[in-house]
Every structure is written in structure tokens, then in C-alpha cells.
Fold this sequence. Notes:
The complex is a heterodimer.
Chain A: H1 3-29, E1 43-48, H2 56-68, E2 71-76, H3 82-92, E3 98-101, H4 103-111, H5 119-125, H6 134-138, E4 150-162, H7 163-169, H8 185-195, H9 211-219, H10 239-253, H11 269-275, E5 281-285, H12 288-295, E6 301-304, E7 314-322, H13 330-340, H14 343-352, E8 356-357, H15 360-363, H16 378-384, E9 386-387, H17 395-410, H18 416-431
Parallel strand pairs in A: 1-2, 1-3, 7-9
Antiparallel strand pairs in A: 3-7, 4-5, 4-6, 4-7, 4-8
Chain B: H1 18-23, H2 26-54, H3 76-116, H4 122-132, H5 141-150, H6 158-166, H7 169-180, H8 184-192, H9 197-205, H10 210-225, H11 229-234, H12 243-249, H13 258-289
Helix pairs in contact in B: 2-13, 3-6, 3-7, 3-10, 3-13, 7-10, 8-9, 10-13, 12-13
Amino acid sequence: MSSRNQLNRRTLVQGSIGAAVTATALSTTLSPAPALATQASGEVSFMNWDVVAGTPLEAALNAFQEQSGIKVNVQPTPTQDYETKQRTLLASGSPPDIMRVNDDLVRAFSVADQLYDLKPFIDQSGLDPAEFQEYPFTFPVQPDGKHTAWPIGTRPYVLFYNKTAFEEAGVALPPTTWTSEGWTWDDFLSAAQALNIPDERWGALIYDETSYEQTFTINNGEPSGIWSEDGTQFTMANPTGIEAIQWVTDLTCKHEVQPPWSELQMDDAGYQMFASGRVAMIGQNSSFASYLRENVSDFTWDLAPIPGKVEQKSLANLTVFCIPKDAKNPEAAFELLKFLSSTEGGRIFADAGEFVPVNKAAAAEIKAVNGMPEHINLVTEAIENSTTENFSVNIMRARQIYRSEMDLVYNCSESAENVLTGIREQVEAALAGDI
Amino acid sequence: MAHPASLLPPVEGEEHHPLQDRSRNPVAAIAFYALMGLLALIFALPLLWMVGTSLKEESEVLAIPPTFLPERAQWENYGETFRTVSRFLWNSTYLAVVNVVLLLVFASMAAYGFARLNFFGRDLSFSLLLSTAMIPGIVYLIPQYILYREIGWIDTHFPLWVPRVLTPVIGTFLLRQFFKSIPGELEDAAKIDGASTFEIYWRIMLPQVKPGLAAVGIFTFLDSWNDLFGPLIFVNSIEKQTLPVALALYQGEFFTQTTLLMAAATITIAPVILIFIVSQKYFIRGITMTGLKE
């Protein structure tokens, strides 16, 4: 890691805590500019599960404050126990005006009538849905028509690879567009085997990022992925789903080109393994690029599509915010959400590579500059070829049940068939809300 | 310091404990200390890794083969981390001091009452007090939050010390055991000399339970110092947060700066280790005496 990168990295992380202390004070002194909306004013409390200071989000919040004159009070709440605080605040009727929310929970919170319906705001503001990517815009629309959340960005699941390792091993580079030509599962396995050097470098790492479950299941021919479309069946336990999970696990258990599960139990172990050159290919969400930009200087890295089989799909992970029903200042809160998903706000995130903005014009500005990989534009193709999970109210409980059992598969002590068929009934009972 | 073997009870039917016999044999003694040293090293390994990692560059953290020491010590990690966490360090320190001092006052008074005073419903009250410790905090979290909101305590430090200080269940229990072990003659003599109940508690009995106070004080300090949940739930402003929250903030959604996190962790646990080293005699004595009855 170069000293420049260290400095940048440190600046980011140190700033993320230290500057947070002063961010609120600074925000109050920013000179107010013409308001975005005449009816919105005052303060907005903003709770996020990640540090805001020193990140593109802080830059976007500052830009909003300058333009609107609305003060944003950031309440950084670490990922650990975030949901406990979120549920406590919602249940007690004292939530902040804006909350980051796990996309898995949007449906459940909506059913519990805990989120503000944004549809009247959307209608009044004259927002044109055509300005936004379709899936993020329609994701929060509930069966009753309420629009209960607001994604500001998408983090598609893509493959990161060590280009230097490919070149040194004489392996053909993956495609630079979203195609499976020369990039099937068999091609991927061959590349992983050629890149694998025992005790030095693993060929690939897939099962570390759970986005693979949906992606590889669908790409193997299971049309709805983990869950059926109506959210009542655990379709990953169908034969094609089982085959997909077993194929990924066999990268470790059979082909020995993937790090053992036991080596991945430390936080960010997969990130660090790739960044230190000990893994040649890794499936990750596109935000991984911002980590690599700061931590990799010893080799060249790039993006590639997920390998294809029957299908070649990615998964669109969303960065979602919501306005709780009991928020004190929903008008100002919506103005902030609107700004974060505007061309101007989205451009801040696009420049930083944080995620792909939901605003199409901003997303189109993602370029291979500022340390971005050569084919960063693949993220937009990934979104165009992305799938999503079929969310249901009880998805979190069902997920807890099957994920806890997956260790048996990943540790090579049980087959995917035994584990997934064994817990299918229990998972589907959880989906039905029976347990 | 007592010899380790002298702490062990003799085995029935033998004049000495086997370890006591072994202690007279130099070879056995060396083997014993070697084993203890090895065990100590194993227990200390995570601590050593933490300190070593705090001085590394990020790229060295998961290097193969693993190393404990950095190639070149990055002392600036500590400088930068300290500048970041100093505000949180102050919050944690003052909360710990407030918690320890006030809890010892309230817990010792309650413990003295339950141990030495006779009043109607004493044992039932004590049982009720103990039973409150059986209720998981998460059960009453939401009502507690609403209550604090109604009295204006959200985003203040009050929820982080007032409930702990005024409901010191474990502290009261531990100190009650100490008070019960003190001979009643001391109390009787003080009464004959005309001491009031408070004077007996303050001037006669309290000095007798110093090891217990030390143990409860250390427990309280650790409880306050390591409390992540309370500040996370009840405090919103970052300038009012404490060290555990600051540590958690080093772990981002997409990445963790392990070296800085470990430097912050080292700064966080240094006072705890220092306090334990200074007061371990009282701490161990306090804990071991807790099981004694009068």
C-alpha cells in the first residue's frame, strides 16, 4: 500500500469519526441558499448504520444543506445493534426523520404501518419516474399502492479480478461486456484452477458474499431464485438450486480453488485476501471498488460479469432509506431524499464509486477515473441484467434459519442436498409466519 | 505473594497436596511454571495480536505467513486514533467514575441494611430485589425508552448512570455477603459507645469490607466502560457517545480499517488492564470471600 493511499485511507476513516463530531456544528454555519422547496424547512434527523463523515454521503448532505438551508443532524449508529435501535425507535414513536433501512425489512415495516407513504410527495413534486432506474423506483411500492421507502443507489453483484495475476498466469481475461461467451461456469472454474497456487493464492472466492445464493441459483436455471415469486416457498432447495449451491461449495470441497470457510470467519477476511493478492477472483457488490481503490496498489484489478450458465444474472442490492410514519419533519426529509437521488446528488456518489445512483443521468456519469477500474461501466450493465429476491414479510426469520445451517455445507461436512432439503419445511414454516 | 500450591486445599487422607509435594521438587516446580507460562501465553495471544496489529500497515494484517510484529511500527496509528477517540475517552471516563462512586455509596448502604438491620419484610424485599436481575433488559427496553423520552433523558447521559446507580442488584448482593461475615461484636461495641446506625455503617462496618468494595467497584467500572448498548440506544449525538460506540464506528458496512480499530481497542482496554493490575489483590480477595458465610 502506498503512503499516499494510506493517507487517503486514514483520512477517510479518521474523518469518518473525528469529523462527525464537528460535522453537525459546521452544518449549522453553512450559508443558506435558495430552498429546494418552499414548504420544507428546519431540521432533519438522519440515522445511518454506517459512518457518514468523510464519505460521499457527507458531501451530498453538505451540498443539500447549502442549497436548502435545511439542517441535517446525523445520528451515526454502528451496524452492530442498528436494528435493535431502529425497532426501539419505531415502536416508541420517536424515530428520526430519515432512517437507513435494510431492504429485507421494508415489506415487514410497511405491513406494520410504520413507514410514511411517500406517494403524495412524489405526486406533488412532479418527479418523473422515467428519470430513475425502474427496479429501485418500483421496489418500495407496496401491494396497496403506498410508496414506503426510497432507494438512492444500487450495488450490483459483480466479479472483481486480479488482472495482474491473470496476465502472469497466461489466463485469458474475462469479457469486458455482460456476456457469457467464453465466460461460462466451466470457463470460470478453468480460470480459477489456472490461477490457483497452493499455499500462495486461491483461484476464486464466491460463497463469502451472500448475493451469490440468488445469482447462482437463478443462473443455474431456478427461475425465482431463493424464494418463489409469492414468497411462500424455499425454491433454493429445489434440485437446480441445490446443484448451484453445491457447485459453488465444490470450489472449496472438490476443486480446492476457494479458501476454506474457516478462513473467512474474521470480518472482511475476503476483502483483505483479495486486496493482498491472496485471492485472484472474488464475487462482491460493486461498493467493493471503493475499498480496493484505497487499499490496492500492488496489482491491477478490474471488473467482470458474473459467469453464466442457463442465465447470466446479477443481483441488485439497494441502498434504501425510509421516512418513519412518526417522523416530525417528513416534508424536509423527503426533500433530502429527493436531492440524494437527483442528478446533482447522484453525481456525488457516482464520482466516488460508492454505488450506482438510481438517477439515470447520474449513473451514466460513472467513469474509469479517480482510480476506478477500466471497466467500471460494467456496473450499469450488471444492473440491466440484475435480478432481485422475492421479498416477503417473514423473510428475515426464514433467512436466519437456513443461513445458520449453511455452515455445514461450506465446511464440507454435509452435502447441499442434505442440508437444504432437511430444513426446507422449517424455512417454509417461517415464511408462513408459523415459527 | 502466596505460592500457588498453598492456595490448593489438601487432598483427603494426605498430609500435603500433591502440588505442594511437587513444589519441593525443583524439576516439578520448573515443569509447573513452564506449564503455567505456556497457558498464560496462550491466553495472552489475542492481546498480543491486537497490539501487534495496531502497529502494522493494513496490508500486513492478513499476511501469509502471519506475523505478530509489524515490519515497521506505525506509531502514527496511535496518534491519529487518540486524536479521534479522546472525546469518547473523556465521556467513558467520567461516566465510569460517576457510576463507580455513586454505585458504591448506594449499594453499600442497601447491602448493610439487608445484612445487619432487622426490619419487616427484609428477606422478602431482598428476594424481590434479586429477582429483578433475572429479567432480560431487552424485555423492558421500549417502555424504558418511552419513559426516558417523556422525562427528557434521551440524548443525555442520565440513562447511562442513574438506573445503574440506583438499582445496584449485584453490588448489593455481593456486599451483603461481606457485611454478613463481620462479627456482631464490632457492632455491639459501637452501639455501647453511642454510635448511631449511620455511624456504625460508615465508620465501623464500611472499612471492614474494602475488598468487597474493590471487587464491586471493578465490576461496575467494567460494566460502565464496556457498555455499548446503552449509549447506542439512548444517545444520538456523536459528541456524547462513549468508547465502545467509537470502536464500533471503526467497522464500516463495506470495510474495516483493522489497524486503527486495534489501536483504538488497545487504548480502550489499557485502563482496564491497569486497574486490574493495581487492584488484583483486592479483586481476587473480594471475589473469593463472597462465598463465605458468617
